[in-house]
Design brief:
Layout (H helix, E strand, L loop, with lengths): L5 E7 L9 E5 L7 H10 L6 H20 L9 E8 L15 E8 L1 H8 L3 E3 L8 E7 L7 E3 L3 E7 L11 E6 L2 E4 L3 E4 L3 E5 L7 E11 L5 E9 L4 E4 L1
Parallel strand pairs: 1-5, 7-15
Antiparallel strand pairs: 1-2, 3-4, 6-8, 8-12, 9-10, 9-13, 11-12, 13-14, 13-15
């Protein structure tokens, strides 16, 4: 694979009082799917056929999912997992209640991924962003910033977030490995703050949250769809 760099630009930092402070925003980062990874493996030469590789990938995914479903943890060179439980228990006699508590899956990079990340290089690009920028996502019921319960109200803060809720292409989207779900109910829709009901039919598991809009910084309609992706991976729970 050809060597490439992490491209970034600098945007004004809305989280500090200093008007000159900037924060880095990664741009043009290519996303590799299982198909892309398999193609890269085939380029490097292997005795395995593509159909065998597909069968292996599918089996590995199912085994890992079964381990997680049964409360096990994963420890590999690629990633490590562990569990934690969020929510408040009233006393020592209280038990887990899905309406008040949630199981959180913690995923961290393994040794091989950490080593690879330490070898990456960066390249600064010019140009001011006009895309939505998300600084925080919060489940307003649990106040959690990483685990979002399906069907609850979530608050999104940042800049340039306002969108036209009547346009199906615009809005708040939860993007998972199996597809995407749009938040149909919008409670508050402002440039710096958006409040929606997180879709109840989203699949449980990790997802990326996106705000999509065709409004510019002056809230005027434009033709180009602008997409802002939250930089942290979130976890949906039922």
């Amino acid at each position: 694979m050809a060597k490439d760099s992490i491209k970034y630009r600098l945007d004004k930092n809305p989280l500090t009082a200093d008007p000159d402070d900037c924060m880095a925003q990664v741009v043009d980062s290519r996303v590799f799917t299982e198909d892309d990874i398999r193609k890269e493996m085939l380029k490097r030469g292997t005795e395995l056929s593509e159909s065998t590789m597909i069968a292996y990938q599918n089996l590995r995914e199912k085994v890992i999912a079964d381990i997680i479903e049964n409360g096990g943890s994963i420890n590999t060179p690629l990633f490590n997992t562990s569990f934690s439980i969020t929510g408040v228990f009233t006393d020592e006699n209280d038990t887990f209640d899905k309406s008040r508590h949630a199981v959180k899956l913690n995923v961290n990079a393994g040794s091989a991924i950490r080593e690879a990340a330490s070898k990456t290089t960066t390249q600064k690009t010019e140009g001011k962003s006009t895309d939505p920028y998300i600084t925080r996502v919060k489940d307003t019921v649990s106040l959690d910033g990483t685990v979002i319960k399906a069907g609850t109200v979530i608050e999104i803060t940042g800049a340039r977030l306002k969108f036209d809720a009547t346009d199906a292409e615009q809005g708040v989207f939860a993007v998972t490995a199996s597809g995407e779900v749009r938040a149909a109910t919008v409670i508050d829709n402002k440039p710096a703050r958006v409040v929606v009901i997180f879709p109840a039919d989203v699949n449980a598991g990790d997802f990326t949250l996106e705000v999509r809009t065709k409004l510019n910084a002056d809230n005027k309609a434009v033709k180009t769809l602008k997409i802002g992706r939250y930089g942290k991976t979130l976890t949906a729970v039922k």
